[in-house]
UniProtKB/TrEMBL annotation:
Source organism (scientific name): Planococcus halotolerans
Gene Ontology cellular component terms for the protein in this record: outer membrane-bounded periplasmic space
InterPro entries per UniProt: ClpP/crotonase-like_dom_sf (IPR029045), CtpA/B_N (IPR055210), PDZ (IPR001478), PDZ_6 (IPR041489), PDZ_sf (IPR036034), Peptidase_S41A (IPR004447), Peptidoglycan-bd-like (IPR002477), PGBD-like_sf (IPR036365)
Family annotation (NCBIfam families): prc
Family: Belongs to the peptidase S41A family.
Name recorded for this polypeptide: Peptidase S41
Length: 514
């Protein structure tokens, strides 16, 4: 079929001049199309060569970075000449990990897609695991603090415990993310941590049953004399609203003074810490400062909002880190609130988590933060105004319930059991790690009091009961909380009520049961 064309618009080339050689006569449109085809063909061949050629070039449209030439060379050498097949993605992930590790910053980390997903779980409503915040320090995975009521806390895990192995696998040199991948797992499964604690010469093994860890972050109760004890266990997206609810509930119960407790709180979201700080600091006063590289500090001021208008003290310890220290610095330096307890952990940097295109994440330190007075507390911590130590028995290690401690046994576990029973006011004789007659009698008395089978042997349920009783004693006779309560009562002008008689306590228990 002949192509039909309108007569108008047909352009004719002018007659060409004769020359000695042959010539080709082309219409203008055809000539232009030929040039376009040649350009496209040349571009296609170039892209093919760049993509599949033996000598690969830097990615098209990317500026050449000479500092990466060594990296490209190493990548190609391994890819082409390593004696086994190599996963290209693992090589790239390893290269990024190496760059981050070279920073020497325990708070900076690269997470592949799976690791990034678990990282996001940590700020969601719940996750499954043991419930402990960990951090890499000097090549060791260190417990910052266990989460309140978590399997880790119930198993006796403590701040500054060093985890040297997980299920028998040595994890020295692992990044925080790599360690978390091993420690976390499905609810109902077990994980065994090998732990070094303090000056102990031998490590201990702690087997923990993983569970769902709800991210409930605020716990409140009245502790007598119109004083409320409000514990904040981490700073998540819902913490501020949880705290507002707790304060309202405590006011309804007659609260006249408040003890805020961030002991063993490893931190969390910066905004949450600022929102809470704002409750205690007058409008216009400084809460904290952030200083990025080469820039002047950015100052955050308290805004106009409802303020807590009753006396407050703040409890801190070595497990109070990051956002907890932001709150402590703001309350102390800008509101004159007394800090009670032990020196805080000492984390004065801010991290930013950057999502990458494939779902992985690059989290690294982007700034340092300063207290309102301009103090950088990194690796120094914040000292309390009133120092109060935990009792010695509060830091005793976990006892493996699978062991059988009986007359004639000599071990560090026996020494620990002796100290526990002694703290519970049982006569154990000399605390020397030797299970002798007095220790047997003490165990029998304890078993009788707990309505357990009286055998004089510590194992299984007897060990669990012993640790539960000690934990209850720590909570009941908390010297830091008692000191903080006394101070805030003095500030509020509250007279201490007379202690309950045994009869009054029994009546109160009966009324509570009804």
């Amino acid at each position: 079929m002949d192509e039909r064309r309108p007569e108008e618009g047909n352009e004719q080339l002018p007659p060409a001049e004769e020359s000695r050689g042959h010539y080709i006569r082309l219409k203008t449109f055809s000539f232009i199309m030929l040039v376009v085809v040649l350009i496209l063909a040349t571009a296609g061949l170039t892209v093919f060569a760049l993509t599949f050629g033996d000598e690969k070039a830097v990615e098209v449209n990317s500026p050449e970075r000479r500092e990466f030439q060594k990296l490209y060379t190493a990548y190609d050498e391994i890819q082409n000449n390593y004696f086994e097949d190599v996963d290209r993605e693992e090589l790239i992930n390893g290269a990024i990990n190496g760059m981050v590790d070279s920073l020497g910053d325990p708070y900076s980390d690269y997470m592949n897609e799976e690791e990034a997903s678990q990282f996001l779980e940590g700020i969601s409503s719940s996750f499954e695991g043991i419930g402990a915040e960990v951090q890499e320090r000097n090549g060791y995975i260190t417990i910052v603090s266990p989460i309140k009521n978590s399997p880790a806390e119930k198993a006796g895990i403590q701040p500054n415990d060093q985890v040297i192995a997980v299920d028998g696998e040595n994890i020295q040199g692992f990044s925080t993310t790599e360690a978390v991948m091993l420690i976390r797992g499905e609810k109902g499964t077990e994980v065994t941590l090998t732990i070094m604690r303090g000056d102990m010469q031998d490590p201990i093994e702690v087997t923990i049953v993983r569970d769902e860890i709800p991210i409930e972050t605020v716990y409140s109760e009245m502790i007598g004399d119109n004083v409320a004890h409000i514990q904040i266990t981490s700073f998540s997206q819902e913490t501020f609203s949880e705290l507002e609810t707790a304060i309202a509930d405590m006011k309804e119960e007659g609260m006249e003074a408040m003890v805020i407790d961030v002991r063993q709180n490893p931190g969390g979201l910066l905004q949450s810490a600022l929102d809470i700080s704002n409750l205690f600091i007058e409008e216009g006063a400084e809460m904290f400062e952030v200083q990025a590289k080469g820039q002047e500090p950015e100052i955050y001021l308290a805004s106009d909002a409802d303020k807590v208008d009753i006396p407050v003290t703040l409890l801190i310890d070595g497990g109070s880190a990051s956002a907890s220290e932001i709150l402590a610095g703001a309350m102390s330096e800008s509101a004159g609130i007394q800090l009670v307890g032990e020196k805080t952990f000492g984390k004065g940097t801010v991290q930013t988590a950057n999502d990458l295109a494939d779902g992985s994440n690059l989290k690294f330190t982007t700034a340092k933060w300063l207290t309102p007075d301009g103090n950088w507390i990194h690796e120094k911590g914040i000292e309390p105004d009133v120092a109060v130590e935990y009792p010695e028995y509060a830091s005793l290690p976990f006892i493996d319930a699978s062991l059988e401690l009986k007359d004639g046994t000599i071990s560090e576990q026996v020494r620990t059991a002796e100290k526990m029973l002694e703290a519970l006011e049982y006569e154990v004789g000399e605390v020397d790690g030797v299970f002798e007659e007095e220790m047997t009698q003490a165990v029998e008395a304890f078993q009788e009091d707990q309505e357990l089978e009286v055998t004089g042997i510590l194992t299984g349920d007897s060990i669990y009961a012993l640790m539960d009783e000690l934990r209850a004693k720590i909570e009941e006779e908390d010297p830091m909380l008692l000191e903080a309560k006394k101070l805030v009562m003095e500030e509020a002008g509250i007279e201490a009520s007379a202690p309950e008689t045994d009869e009054e306590a029994e009546e109160a228990e009966e009324e509570s049961a009804e």
